[in-house]
Specification:
elongated; 225 residues; 82% helix; mainly alpha; Methane Monooxygenase Hydroxylase, Chain G, domain 1
Length: 225
């Protein structure tokens, strides 16, 4: 993470640290929601929906806090170079996390609409996607705290794995719908849940790119890091 200490005005250090803490707390909230989504997919039902909505509201509140806090720092401190890059990127990071929270909440809501358990092979693919996207977020916050360019590249590679699982799962579910049209509604909800997880992977990859930029000053190209 960018060095945020050592200013003559220690209150500036505290303001920057508080911005970091907001981001970390927001990521923890998303991780909790992803865990809730995993449990909901394994045991479909409506019990977790209210909890998911509550957790998502807290993530949204932190998103607004980050934007307000970053704006306040820029107005009061007029930061230069690396600090300005960090502060403006914090707003972008919060946006990615907020969208991840929305997708995780929507996955819980999809699970509540299932009228039967998810087939074992399909559930295994969904859990693999969830494991990967949670790992991507955990690693992103790890490099936010202690920058490591090689780990950032690994996060992008895991996004490719998430995409591959989604494509395979989508094709298999289309085949299942052809064989069992009576279960089309269930399969459709599962497809939307899987798409949510695929999009969460995209946002986690974007988060890693932003963190890489904050620390290196270089933007990630299509060829990777």
């Amino acid at each position: 993470m960018l060095n945020i200490e050592g200013h003559a005005d220690k209150s500036y250090d505290r303001e920057l640290k508080e911005l970091c803490d907001f981001i970390i707390k927001m990521s923890d909230g998303v991780l909790d929601l992803l865990q809730l989504a995993a449990a909901a997919l394994e045991s479909p039902g409506s019990a977790a929906v209210d909890d998911a909505k509550l957790r998502d509201r807290e993530i949204n509140r932190l998103d607004l806090n980050i934007e307000d806090h970053a704006t306040m720092i820029m107005t009061r401190r007029q930061p230069f170079m690396g600090e300005l890059r960090f502060i403006t990127s914090a707003i972008k990071m919060a946006t990615e996390l907020e969208r991840m929270g929305d997708m995780a909440k929507n996955t819980v809501k999809r699970s509540a609409k299932l009228t039967r358990s998810i087939p074992e092979n399909t559930l295994k693919d969904l859990m693999s996607m969830l494991t990967l996207v949670r790992s991507m977020l955990i690693e992103s916050i790890a490099i936010f705290k202690n920058f490591d360019g090689a780990k950032a590249q690994k996060i992008l590679e895991n996004d490719d794995k998430v995409d591959a699982i989604y494509k395979s799962l989508f094709k298999n579910l289309q085949d299942d719908m052809m064989r069992s049209p009576g279960d089309a509604a269930t399969f459709t909800h599962v497809i939307f849940a899987a798409k949510n997880l695929e999009r969460i992977g995209d946002h986690a990859a974007s988060l890693a790119k932003i963190i890489y930029y904050v620390n290196s000053g270089e933007k990630v190209t299509k060829n990777g890091i």
